Amino acid sequence: MKFFSFYLSLICLFFFSCQSKTEDVKREKVTFQTITDSIFTRMPGRLIKVDDYLVWEDPFASDKFIHVIDIHQNKEIGIMGKKGQGPEEFNTPSISSSFIKNNIFVYDLNSPHQAYFSIDSLKENKNPYRKYENNKLGKIMHTINFSENGFIISQPAEEKRFKLISNDKSIEFGDPFIDNKIDNSFDIYQGAMGINEKKHKFVFASLRLPYLEIYDIKDHEPSLVYASELPKNSYHIVGTSVKPNTQKKGAWDLTLLKDYIAIIQRDYEIDKTDESTVGMDSYKLPKTVFLYDYEGKLKRIIDLGIPLIRIAGDTESNTLYAIGVDPEFVLIKSEL
Amino acid sequence: MKKKILSGIFALALPVTAGYGVSKSVNGNADLNDLALSNVEALAMTEEEFYNLTGCCPCWEYLLCLGKDGNTYSYAYKC
Questions:
Q1: Model confidence pLDDT, tens digit, residues B28-42
Q2: pLDDT tens-digit profile of A111-145?
Q3: In a domain, B48, yes or no
């Protein structure tokens, strides 16, 4: 009888813990407003919210690649950042997913060329380009700013996956989240990053595996405060390489809001799309945004009703901006 | 301005250096060679051509791929 009661209580505990997990998550259909349908590109790159502006990158543009949209007037105020090989031009540009006082950090993937581009200068018809030189940086591949000279750099092929660089220090952090030593860590440990300065949080979501981690970065001393459990079926090991499960994946893009970590993620309970069939078909992209709190707990699943490519927001509000497909690229906004 | 959206065959505009790379490497393909030489800034390639040149596949997410041609590509992964 004692054993029976013990097992019964164990079963109940398991049942209720599972039940509360799903009960806590609210699934909601949310409407959106279209800001502009003038997103003329083969594929939009990064989208970031910079105070009263939305900035979207056109990574495959042949001329200029940073588009600036005034969110109050719902119109583009200008384009900056030239493609090319001249002194103020970028051959393979990328933009940081954060900004410093209306300045956007741009870096070249294949050279140490880096610069800030000023939205204020663009508005005043002045040259927005300002070269940035910092011998601590070198050639970088994926970075996010927290100050003019403060960066967190992703270095997926290194033993520590991130490097925090500020005026006075340089700290490497972030242990591999797969136990095995692997030889394709550059491909596997890439992800989307966000910083919430108010909450002193740095968030990383893997783009290859369903994995989320949150660091406290108070006083620029990173410490891991949350790491999700990596599902066993999300990858397998072949020799010394990790092969992600191609049918299911985690994040597509990430942004940080006032109360939520927002991630474009497919709700597999509703949407049974096999990710291996998506390819470059934009109509098969996920329509849902998962909202986690800053402790890593999933709180809400938002269905916006259109395929989503990029999301952006800021830590002042829970307004979400996104680039979706309706049926062409559109910039939308939704209050969460 | 005509809106463009990706569907079916993927068209990818590659950086200038990669454009020259392609013009050197596709000796048998006159059309692609002409395109690369006349408009190196916006070279359109199919997924297959892109893979043959770089060993990378295009994707929607901000992933980076270290191409076998020595360049790093954004919105691409090693496949």
A1: 333 333 332 222 333
A2: 999 999 999 999 999 999 999 998 788 888 899 99
A3: yes
Tokens representing A50 are 């910079």
Number of domains in chain B: 1
Q: Is B5 within a domain?
A: no
Plot region of A78 (φ>0 → left; ψ -120 to 50 → alpha; else → beta): left
B66 touches chain A (CB under 8 A): yes
Give the architecture (CATH level 2) of A26-335: 6 Propeller (2.120)
Would an 8 Å CB–CB cutoff place B31 in contact with chain A? no
Considering the entire predicted model, what is its pTM? 0.86
**With an 8 Å Cβ cutoff, is A282 touching chain B?**
yes
Does residue B42 form part of some domain?
A: yes
Tokens of A291: 């909202």
Question: Looking at the domain assignment, is residue B2 inside a domain?
Answer: no
- What pLDDT, on a 0 to 100 scale, did the predictor assign at position B4? 44
Structure confidence by residue, pLDDT tens digits, A77-115: 999 999 998 999 999 999 998 888 899 999 999 999 999
User: What pLDDT shows up at residue B13?
Assistant: 43
- CB distance A280–B6 less than 8 Å? yes
Q: What is the domain extent for residue B43?
A: 12-78
Measure the CA–CA gap between A89 and A13, rounded to whole angstroms. Answer: 61
Neighboring chain A residues of B6 at a CB cutoff of 8 Å = 42-43, 280, 282
Query: Which residues face A303 on adjacent strands?
Result: A29, A288
Angle ∠(A293,A298,A299) on CA atoms, nearest 5: 75
